[in-house]
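Title: Comparing notes on inverse folding

I've been comparing how different people in this forum approach sequence design from structure. To keep things fair, I'm posting one structure and asking everyone to reply with a full sequence. Here's the target:
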């Protein structure tokens, strides 16, 4: 008795749509408002893939990536700005005490 397994028919959908959830969570640390938006879009991706809405999943994935990277960039600029501000302010304070 031989049984042959046939794979399910291809729906033309990509095997996996990246959800960028890790990047979105990290963005929460750097830039809270954009991080929240990125997490919301990232959380929607898997549900849309399971529902068969591949186009919606790809769009949510794209938006999650966009907001994550913008938030990371703005957050890093914010922290670098504060470090530079502290160094400059410390230098001015040191010079004025001489």
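Reply #1:
Here's my take.
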């Amino acid at each position: 008795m031989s049984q042959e397994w046939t794979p399910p028919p291809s729906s033309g959908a990509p095997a996996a749509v990246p959800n960028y959830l890790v990047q979105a969570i990290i963005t929460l640390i750097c830039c809270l408002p954009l991080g929240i938006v990125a997490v919301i879009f990232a959380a929607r991706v898997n549900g849309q893939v399971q529902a068969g809405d591949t186009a919606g999943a790809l769009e949510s994935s794209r938006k999650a990536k966009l907001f994550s990277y913008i938030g990371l960039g703005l957050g890093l600029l914010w922290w670098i700005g504060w470090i530079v501000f502290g160094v400059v302010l410390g230098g001015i304070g040191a010079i004025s005490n001489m």
